User: Fold this.
Amino acid sequence: MPLLSTEAIVLSSLRLGEEDKLVTFFSLTRGKISGVAKGARRFKNRFGASLEPFTHCHLVLFEKPNNKLSRISQADILYSFRKLREAWEPIERGTEIVRLLLQITPEEQPHPGLYNLLKEALALLETGSDRHLYTILFMAFLVAESGYQPRWDQCVRCNRPAGSAITTRHFSHKEGGVLCPQCSGDAPLSISQDAWVFLYAISKMNFRSAHEKSPSLLIKREVETLLKDYIV
Assistant:
């Protein structure tokens, strides 16, 4: 059986039968993959805490021909993100970003950019102060890294610049971007000026720089709703 050795982050860990666990990872070299940890529930110290959600580990899998479920041979902890699991808010936020990643990414397609984004986001959720903002930024960069970056700079229908002189904008989920007042007749979702400024600004930044922004709670709620609806 082919052997796969890679860095990975645990996305979910579920019971499988009486003794096993079904574990889904996002790996550096293979993207989203799943495997079975035989006896993980019976022999708890075989894997220890290495299969807990959010754990960054070095993973060894035996891949079975014509079977999507590999067998987990080894999982050595590189960083546990233990503090992330010690309070309700970081757990909730971490679970949210994992859910979105599971939803938007296909199986077994490597994406180092998304892998590094996930690792950075978990680090911020563990130690940072504005976890609501970090979750929103993860959504925005998840969309961009996945190839679905909305157009914030111009109307997606007529290409009219969507600069600050325009005070009324709408967003088209179907077309993936903003609509100017002349093109927005059938678009139900409007975007406030402040939310558009924030979204446009972070689209020009990297993840580390973007987390230094400090939008108001009202803007965060508006942007979060827009991005969640767009991802769905």
Q: What stands out?
A: DSSP finds seven helices and eight strands in the chain. The beta strands are 3-16, 20-27, 31-37, 56-62, 70-79, 169-172, 177-179, 189-191. The mean pLDDT is 90. The radius of gyration is 20 Å.
